[in-house]
Amino acid sequence: MAPTIDHIAIVVDDLNEAADWYITNCGGEVTHKEDTYYRLQLENTCIALILSSHGPNKPHIGVLVECLEDLPELAKHLGQVVEHRDGTHGVYVTDPWGNHIEYICYNSKESKEKFLSYRGSS
Predict the structure, then answer these.
(1) pLDDT at position 22, please?
(2) What is the end-to-end Cα distance of the chain in Å, rounded?
C-alpha cells in the first residue's frame, strides 16, 4: 500500500461548533460521531475533531497502514500502541521537530467499511 494520509486530527473545545466551522469553511460532512470525537469526510481525506477535555490528545497526522506489521521501524520500536474504542489501532510517534504522527490500521472488516468506504475499500 502506498503511503496515504488517512486523517488530520485537530483538538477542539466544542465538537458541534468545530464541525459547523470546518464544514462551512472546508466542505465535507460528518460521517462518524462519538462523545469525544467527530470525523468529517472531505473528498480526499478526513478531519478528525477530538474533544480537548478527553485525555492527552494532540493534533496529529494520521497515516494509513494495512496492518501493524507494516509500520516503519521507528514506530515498531518507539511507538505507543493504542486500541481505539471504534476497533482501530493507532501507533503514535513524535518526529524530531515535535510533530505527532499516528500510523492507523483498520483491522476489521467493519472498521474498513465504516472508515474507508470513500476510498472504495472494504
Answers:
(1) 96
(2) 14
Reading the block at residue 3, the C-alpha cell is 503511503
E strands along the chain, which residues?
Answer: 4-12, 29-34, 37-41, 46-51, 60-64, 80-83, 89-94, 100-105
CATH number of 4-119: 3.10.180.10
Distance CA 95, CA 102 (A): 11
Query: Hey, where are the domains in the chain?
Result: 4-119
Lookup: cell for 12? 477542539
7: burial class by Cβ within 10 Å (0-12, 13-18, 19+)? buried
The mean pLDDT of the chain is 82
What is the value of pTM for the model shown? 0.78
